[in-house]
Write a sequence for this structure.
């Protein structure tokens, strides 16, 4: 087998003068090994020798006249192919447009998926890098999974486990205020890292020593764009940056690095040395897990094996009776798969990415199916041509080449059109996904390679079946005119049409459901009134008496402004992300009412005006009151907390005391009021069981404005701010916009989904349109005859449509379970979800029947309206 | 310009053809070379060296007998031409001169 192929190959390329004796030599060597009984080895050696002989001094000289003959045939194929293209501009357009749209959409999404999957794959040992996270486990069941960990845990794990060969501890600062030309500027993308961070994560260092530049406190390493922002074209290394707020001291720039790649789960634009936060780290110790810790594992380590050591190790390091457990998470999985709380930034969703992958494949398949369908349907037209060609001597192989050439032409034009579509729509696509994945199309070799690859695959897939079908007609039968319709072809065509209908139905329904869920979330009553409320962060400070009195006069002055309705303070603004709140896991009990419950409780604090500003509702008890001195010890709890503690009647706990932790000497706080639940964050997560403390100066200020003259009101708020806190930037946001922002990713996903679904349905429709109009023309005569016999236009249209209706019905039967299972699953990822909207399904079915009816019947309708005298005479 | 262009491998092949006088055809040369050089040589490497030297004029060839084990294909025997002999001599002279010019002390390494 191998030998025969090798012999053939050798004969083909070998110089004829050399062929005889070399072949003889090869035979002799072959026979020699055969005699030693090495049959398969002999064959292999033979083949290898043939391959090794393929070199310039052995191969036959290349003359263009050797291929001249086939060249002429190819020229002829091209000519015929182009003629055919021009002869049927309508069908050619459908083919080319469909293929181009399919290819463009597929490649867009393909590269989007590649990008999403490439997160953090550029580090030194990306597959050995894991993040140490913390699980809260009660009775073997995981309650919450937190992306953060304790500051000393990285070192402790390295000491305990030989598998851990490196670690780095980092903390996200969330907010630092830099001074730039005497103006305060807020920077949110700054992380503090220890000196081993850059040994684990690969980032390009332009200046400075990787080993030492993050060793000392108050040092900072800037990325290029940050350096440009603060120092312009001057050399940044060696200079200092003033950091205002709680720091209030200069930071020395010790290094410069290139801007970091976009595909990382932990992005930053400057690194501060972790030593800067030494005091805080020592205070936190094993008490607060507010750090991101990464471990580098030994190459041979199996993650699951290492993970199984974690429960025991957690007890050893954090005490027998603690509920927290270490968890290891591969860094490469964080972007797409992590659903932990306290993530450093918004991450992607593997589900959304694979959803899109499926759609893009749908679009491409639909486009290919269109081509196959139409070409086989038009086989009859070409049948006579094939018959005649065969009679004048064409071989089957040549006919296949001819039809393949046509497929090449059409696919090539499709690919070229796809390239220009991508070129023109690239900016739009980038804004749709919110990321730049292809900065420059012409230098993006992977994209161009893939375009070429899928052009080839597409040509083969779409070309081969029609080519074989068309070239297999028997000349005599065909020329006599009785070739009959191929049963197989019709069956294939019908199943392909069913697939198209199913895909369209699924996409219509799914898109609508995604939209409904998003609309539900943005319109749902949150339990608070966020209209005309702005929020901003207070100046960072150590909250000394001076600041407190300053802040109080600031709020009093605000209150006096004419556009301001009320002013209040809260530590965590409504509309924040899941990590934008503090929590306590030390256990909680209502003294005398409940036992200690080991669970995560969320901590917020506010001033007494908050009730008015947000129109909060208290179901029992009273609001805080700044006039009551004892209220520094008062708390308000929300209903979720009570239901978590299994309190049936909330009125019974008013004025009772709550205690955190296990120590009976811990502070007691008196419950003065029960707050009706409101959604602080996205509707994806449940309302957090929350305890509100009373504080005069929480971290944020809320201002409720009058609905008139909002712009000027905001301006006067700002000028008041500037009067009191000239060193801090004033950055406000509307609360309802904060909530909208939480759904940005969902909205984006919905929009991408919508666009590509529309595209898929469009491609399917034009294919169907082409196919049905072709089939209608085939039955022109029948239309005429029916009309003569008295059928009305409607009769005929419905009669023809009935053929397709069956296919639609089958598609609906396949589609409904797909939609139900897929979308119900998706909706379940939301804590507050709509019920499965059966109405949408019915609408989608009606829509699909309508689309099919319009596309299928247009041509029939046109034919049926003609004078039967014309149609009967057809052919 | 080199007067007698002759690569190192070509030179060994050429010498072997001389050694095998009158019996120098493909398989035989390959066996002999593999025995002397103690390494495997592919038919391709050998044949391309032979053909190159033939076109340079160092070798000439003629067809020999057919045998069964060759599948009815004839052997091609190679002979050194006088031009080929000159090329070998010139290459040997170069080497001899080099050997002579090495100071004794340079090789006195034991």
């Amino acid at each position: 087998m191998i030998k025969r192929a090798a012999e053939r190959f050798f004969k083909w390329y070998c110089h004829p003068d050399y062929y005889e004796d070399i072949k003889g030599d090869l035979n002799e060597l072959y026979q020699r090994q055969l005699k030693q009984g090495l049959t398969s080895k002999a064959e292999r050696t033979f083949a290898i020798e043939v391959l090794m002989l393929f070199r310039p001094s052995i191969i036959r000289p290349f003359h263009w006249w050797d291929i001249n003959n086939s060249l002429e045939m190819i020229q002829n194929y091209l000519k015929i192919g182009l003629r055919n293209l021009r002869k049927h501009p309508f069908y050619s357009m459908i083919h080319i447009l469909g293929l181009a749209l399919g290819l463009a959409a597929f490649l867009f999404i393909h590269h989007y998926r590649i990008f999403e999957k490439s997160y953090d794959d550029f580090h030194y040992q990306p597959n050995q890098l894991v993040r140490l996270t913390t699980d809260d486990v009660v009775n073997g069941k995981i309650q919450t999974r937190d992306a953060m960990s304790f500051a000393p845990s990285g070192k402790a794990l390295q000491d305990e486990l030989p598998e851990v060969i490196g670690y780095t501890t980092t903390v996200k600062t969330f907010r630092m205020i830099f001074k730039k030309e005497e103006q305060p500027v807020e920077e949110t993308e700054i992380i503090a890292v220890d000196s081993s961070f850059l040994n684990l994560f690969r980032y390009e260092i332009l200046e400075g020593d990787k080993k030492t530049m993050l060793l000392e406190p108050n040092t900072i390493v800037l990325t290029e764009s940050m350096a440009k922002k603060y120092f312009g074209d001057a050399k940044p290394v060696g200079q200092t940056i003033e950091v205002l707020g709680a720091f209030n001291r200069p930071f020395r720039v010790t290094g410069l690095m290139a801007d970091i790649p976009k595909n990382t789960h932990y992005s930053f634009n400057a690194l501060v040395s972790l030593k800067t936060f030494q005091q805080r780290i020592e205070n936190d110790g094993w008490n607060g897990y507010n750090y991101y810790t990464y471990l580098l594992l030994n190459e041979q380590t199996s993650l699951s094996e290492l993970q199984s050591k974690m429960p025991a190790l957690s007890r050893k390091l954090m005490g027998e009776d603690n509920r927290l457990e270490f968890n290891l998470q591969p860094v490469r999985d964080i972007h797409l798969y992590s659903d932990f709380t306290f993530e450093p930034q918004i991450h992607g969703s593997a589900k959304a990415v694979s959803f899109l992958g499926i759609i893009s494949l749908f679009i491409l398949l639909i486009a290919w199916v269109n081509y196959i369908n139409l070409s086989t349907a038009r086989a009859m037209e070409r049948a006579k041509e094939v018959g005649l060609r065969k009679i004048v001597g064409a071989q089957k192989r040549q006919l296949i080449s001819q039809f393949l050439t046509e497929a090449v032409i059409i696919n090539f034009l499709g690919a070229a059109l796809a390239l220009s579509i991508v070129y023109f729509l690239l900016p739009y696509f980038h804004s749709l996904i919110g990321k730049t994945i292809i900065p420059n199309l012409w230098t993006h070799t992977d994209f161009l390679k893939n375009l070429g690859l899928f052009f080839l695959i597409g040509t083969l897939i779409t070309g081969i079946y029609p080519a074989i079908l068309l070239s297999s007609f028997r000349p005599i039968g065909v020329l006599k005119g009785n070739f009959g319709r191929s049963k197989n072809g019709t069956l294939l065509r019908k199943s392909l049409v069913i697939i198209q209908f199913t895909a369209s139905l699924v996409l219509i329904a799914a898109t609508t459901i995604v939209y409904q869920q998003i609309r539900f979330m943005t319109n749902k009553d949150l339990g608070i009134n966020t209209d005309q409320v702005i929020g901003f962060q207070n100046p960072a400070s150590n909250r000394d008496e001076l600041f407190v009195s300053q802040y109080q006069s600031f709020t009093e002055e605000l209150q006096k402004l004419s556009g301001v309705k009320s002013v209040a303070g809260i530590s965590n603004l409504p509309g924040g992300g899941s990590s934008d709140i503090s929590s306590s896991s030390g256990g909680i009990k209502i003294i005398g009412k409940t036992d200690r419950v080991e669970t995560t409780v969320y901590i917020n604090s506010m001033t007494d005006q908050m009730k008015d500003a947000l129109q909060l509702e208290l179901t029992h008890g009273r609001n805080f009151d700044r006039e009551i001195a004892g209220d520094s010890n008062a708390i308000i709890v929300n209903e979720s907390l009570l239901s978590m503690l299994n309190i049936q009647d909330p009125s019974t706990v008013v004025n009772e005391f709550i205690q955190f932790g296990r120590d009976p000497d811990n502070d007691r706080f008196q419950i003065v009021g029960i707050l009706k639940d409101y959604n602080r964050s996205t509707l994806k997560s449940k309302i957090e069981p929350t305890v509100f403390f009373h504080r005069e100066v929480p971290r944020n200020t809320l201002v409720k404005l009058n609905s008139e003259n909002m712009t000027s009101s905001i301006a006067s708020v700002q000028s008041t701010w500037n009067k009191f806190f000239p060193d801090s930037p004033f950055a406000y946001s509307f609360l309802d916009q904060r909530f909208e922002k939480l759904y940005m990713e969902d909205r984006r996903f919905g929009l991408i989904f919508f666009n590509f679904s529309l595209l898929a349905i469009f491609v399917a429709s034009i294919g169907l349109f082409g196919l049905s109009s072709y089939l209608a023309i085939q039955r022109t005569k029948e239309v005429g005859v029916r009309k003569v016999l008295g059928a009305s236009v409607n009769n005929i249209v419905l009669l023809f449509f009935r053929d397709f209706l069956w296919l639609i019905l089958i598609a609906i039967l396949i589609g409904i379970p797909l939609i139900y299972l897929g979308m119900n699953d998706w909706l379940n990822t939301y804590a507050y979800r709509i019920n499965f909207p059966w109405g949408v399904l019915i609408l989608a079915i009606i829509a699909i029947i309508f689309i099919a009816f319009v596309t299928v019947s247009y041509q029939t309708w046109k034919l049926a309206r003609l004078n039967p005298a014309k149609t009967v005479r057809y052919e | 310009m080199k007067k007698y262009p002759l690569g190192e491998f070509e030179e060994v092949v050429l010498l072997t053809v001389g050694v095998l006088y009158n019996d120098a055809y493909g398989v035989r040369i390959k066996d002999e070379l593999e025995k002397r050089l103690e390494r495997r040589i592919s038919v391709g490497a050998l044949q391309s060296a032979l053909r190159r030297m033939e076109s340079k004029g160092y070798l000439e060839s003629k067809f020999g007998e057919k045998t069964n084990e060759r599948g009815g294909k004839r052997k091609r025997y190679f002979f050194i031409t006088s031009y080929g002999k000159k090329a070998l001599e010139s290459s040997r002279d170069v080497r001899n001169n080099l050997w002579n010019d090495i100071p004794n002390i340079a090789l006195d390494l034991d």
